[in-house]
Design brief:
The chain is of the alpha/beta class. It has helices at residues 75-80, 83-99, 118-127, 168-181, 209-222, 233-241, 255-263, 274-282, 291-296, 299-316, 338-347, 351-358, 360-366, 416-425; strands spanning 3-11, 20-27, 30-36, 47-50, 55-58, 60-65, 102-107, 135-137, 139-144, 163-165, 186-190, 225-230, 246-249, 269-271, 319-320, 381-384, 401-406, 409-412. The strands form 3 sheets. Strands 1, 2, 3, 4, 5, 16, 17 and 18 form an 8-stranded mixed β-sheet that branches. The two termini are 32 Å apart.
Length: 432
């Protein structure tokens, strides 16, 4: 089995607060040995890659992926794209995400009822090596109530976007079973709404106890993940009551609800998906979302609550991960690494803490041995020109990714020109 030794690198392993000088030996698709300092691992015939003091780190993990979104200006646009064209776009989006250093995607919903097979097929063809892309945990469409986020129908006209509409416990149960039958890894249920659908709906629940219980029961018995769009405080509590431990947003969580989340923090994963709210509020005027429109959506009010919530989440040690809801025109797929900077600037995380969320905790969310530079883990690795634990914004520029490796194979081979330039201009990685 082929071996590769990375030497003269600074290792951010997904745990430490800062990189350390070291070496990493790969055997096939696995990390076989990690050593601190130089010369501690003997090549013994392995192919040697001199990293020229660049940072070797785990591949990024998107915890709230919408890889089938279309960089749209409104959700109904997603529903209008025909399945054949949509599958091609999904393949292109997946390749784009891998080009940006995302080696794993945990999907937070596919697309509507008539296209619910797209994500499972996307996952399978990537796993088979037929197309480039990250590892994917494929999701159902967003299972929603009539009038909830994702229900685009009007009384006189049927249209779809990302939702699978189901009302009442029996319909919800059937919807979940059908999605499981078609091969999803993740079931997504929208317990609360959103201003994008109806004003004020972020603070209201759109499913009731029996409906949430039905979805959770199917997921539990089928052995798949269950996750929820839950902005409203009551929605977060319903999720916790029924054992839903992957909770998105939670903007309006009260202190008491945060106490409940903290009590279960060994099991809980969270992602605020702050980036789309920020860009909609501040950077979408080209698409007609002026400040006045943003205010009508309560976006600034929502951001105040999100910032408060995730300062608390950080202080309480609850696992929160950067990313989410990329796939709109003003928040396009491929710019997902920007959320790392939002975690630093808006929520008070250090760059290293934000990176841990995007690597180690992302791997724990995936339920796979990924997200760490650790013996026995899969070799999903990046070689970065610079130190992202000092400036996390460098992860937004794909030119800074001097190598991208997934499953022990190069998606982007080491950039020898850039590495040679580093060797000429900088000293080798110093031991600490």
């Amino acid at each position: 089995m082929a071996e590769t030794l990375f030497t003269n690198v600074r290792i951010f392993d997904g745990n430490a607060k800062r990189p350390y000088s070291g070496e990493v030996m790969l055997q096939g698709n696995l990390i076989r040995k990690v050593g601190k300092g130089k010369g501690k691992i003997k090549p013994n015939g392995a192919t040697v890659v001199d990293g020229a003091g660049a940072t070797l780190m785990p591949g990024l993990i998107e915890p709230h992926s919408h890889v089938c979104y279309t960089d749209c200006t409104s959700l109904p646009e997603i529903g209008r794209l025909q399945p054949e064209e949509h599958m091609v776009l999904a393949l292109e989006n997946a390749a784009k995400m891998l080009d940006q250093g995302f080696t794993s995607l945990f999907s937070a919903a596919g697309v509507g009822y008539n296209k619910l097979r797209i994500e499972p097929v996307l996952r399978d063809v990537i796993n088979a090596g037929r197309y480039p892309g990250p590892r994917i945990k494929a999701a159902s469409p967003e299972i929603v109530s009539s009038g909830g986020l994702g229900d685009e129908r009007m009384w006189h006209m049927h249209q779809e976007s990302v939702g699978y509409v189901a009302d009442g416990a029996d319909e919800v149960r059937k919807a979940c079973r059908l999605c499981v039958r078609e091969g999803v890894d993740n079931l997504k249920i929208n317990i609360s709404g959103d201003e994008f659908a109806h004003p004020g709906q972020s603070e209201k629940i759109t499913y009731f106890d029996a409906e949430v219980a039905a979805a959770a029961e199917v997921a539990r018995e089928a052995g798949v993940n269950i996750l929820t769009h839950a902005r409203a405080d009551k929605a977060v509590r319903l999720a916790l009551k029924h054992g839903i431990n992957i909770i998105y947003h939670a903007d309006y969580a009260t202190n008491k609800t945060l106490d409940m989340l903290e009590a279960k923090k060994k099991d809980i994963f969270m992602a605020p998906a702050y980036g789309v709210v920020y860009t909609t509020a501040y950077e979408a005027s080209e698409w007609g979302i002026t400040r006045e429109v943003a205010e009508s959506y309560n976006l600034f009010y929502k951001m105040e609550h999100t910032v408060r919530t995730y300062h608390e989440v950080r202080k309480r040690g609850i696992r929160a991960m950067p990313g989410g809801d990329y796939g709109f025109a003003w928040n396009p797929i491929g710019t997902n690494a920007r959320d790392l900077e939002h975690f630093v600037n808006a929520f008070g995380y250090s760059p290293a803490e934000a990176l841990i969320g995007a690597t180690k905790w992302g791997g724990e969310l995936m339920g796979l041995n990924v997200g760490q530079v650790k013996e026995g883990y899969l070799a999903d690795l990046l070689l970065v020109d610079g130190d992202p634990t000092k400036d996390v914004s460098i992860m937004q520029d794909a030119d800074n990714l001097l190598m991208i490796m997934k499953d022990g194979a190069y998606h982007r081979a080491p950039n020898e020109i850039a590495l040679a330039k580093r060797r000429r201009s900088a000293a080798p990685a110093a031991a600490e």
